[in-house]
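Box S2. Input/output pair 1.
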Amino acid sequence: MNRRTVLKTLGFAATLPLTSVARASEAYASRPIRLVVPYPPGGVTDVAARLAGEVLTARYGQPVVVENRPGASGLIGQQVVASSAPDGYTLIMGGLGGNVLPPVTVKGLPLDVPKAFVPIAQIAEFINVLVVSKDSPVTNVQEFVALAKSKGAGAMSYGSNGIGTSAHLTTEFFAQRTGLKMEHVPYKGSGELNIDVANGNLDFSINNLPAVLPLVKKGSLKAIAVTSTYRSKQLPDTPTFQESGIADFDVTSWLGVYAPAALPPALAQELGDVIAKGMSAPEMRKRLETAGFEPQPRGAKEFAALNQRELERWGEIARRANVVIPFGKG
């Protein structure tokens, strides 16, 4: 997603029906709120943060300063927020890729991420897609599995945007569910990876929808199945893995807002309610969908439960796949 698309998606004015949300603390908010994005500007996390900022400004009348603090795969920004006062004036955007996968895959991580933050609100999720070259004979998941088994263990190759990423571990989960053994080729990003799949240098990848959608629309990649339990509005003819015969296969990447762990529970609940309600507004849902997201607003309690479930699930997947990354080597 380029900067121009992001700016068009964000807009500059959104009227949100937030006045009915009860506040747990009348003292909040009396000054600007800082929302840290631990990645560079222009990406999906940055987009989600700016939309969340609009919701908070509409409710509290205070500006939300989105501060990009990239570095060390998000750790720099996380450390900044973890050491901030737990007063609700410093928040951070996070999600599966920053708050769940590193704690279960990275050995020697210098921050205990699950203990450093309290989940506030989920904003949205985006699905992953199994894609192959347009020239591949495969047209569905069962054909893919049959082809992989006929070639033998390790003959099929797939790429991801790095060891321990959601794309990598989602593919390992697929392998575990089907009994397949395939060769993993890590890349530094999705650009070269997508080109190699399109050219047939790799057999397939399971990648985030926003990363592959342009090439699917162009016809260079063929979408075989999506990892969610529902079909994507942007790929309505592409079935889910469950529809394709892979039972209990439900994987999405997701984004949400977190705060330092010692934030008072009443304020965490209030902020979660405000953000979830704001993100549920029809105009905001439309803007999320335009940016490639699937709107999935959740308040603090539900979001905390999701984080715990995902830590347990992805921890087990990583252990079974023997994915252990020494800190600084990923």
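Box S3. Input/output pair 2.
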Amino acid sequence: MSQPYQQTMQTMKNVKANTLALQGNKLSLAAYRASILQSQATFTTAEEFVKANPPTEEKLNPSYQKFLAGISLAKESMDVVLKGISSFSPSKLYAAREMGKQAQQQVIDGYSHF
């Protein structure tokens, strides 16, 4: 589980950095959109791997579910970002940011018990 965790956390850091670059006019909207699509693909790959490798010990199941939920939420937040970009909706982008924060915390909390 360490590889999907590391990939997920690094991708979350990249999304944050790219969002700040976009806000600072250091990244074009097209490049930002492309980075979000790449992030979404990374989260999908991590989610599929985690789903395919559930824990064998029952006591790890709650942590596994939280970890998986965090990755799924991160993936979902990328969809919200893409919708926010296409509709120029700041409220959707703000909602995606909050989802991302929650997803990051779930991933960290879930993984910490493995």
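Caption for Box S3: The chain has a mean pLDDT of 92. The helical segments are 2-23, 29-52, 61-87, 90-111.
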